[in-house]
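Input record (one chain):
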Amino acid sequence: SMTPTELRKFILFVTGAPRLPVGGLKNLKPPLTIVRKTPDPTFDVPSKIADALPSVMTCANYLKLPDYTLEETMREKLFLAMMEGQNSFHLS
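The corresponding structure, as predicted from the sequence alone:
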């Protein structure tokens, strides 16, 4: 569960918009999609899932979550990405 402030930051992180459209998530176009983020096999050093951050494609409302083993880790990394990723743009 998230506070209203955290929820606003999550919506901004995932969609790039400060709020949902009238009608909420069901009227979000394109719809919110959450998928597993797979490690990139081209890196020389094997990636550590627990250290990986979630990423998004805001134009598609697409959230990519690494396959964390603990919900607590997922929440921690999601909040870190939401806070630190504000106002930045990276190609993935």
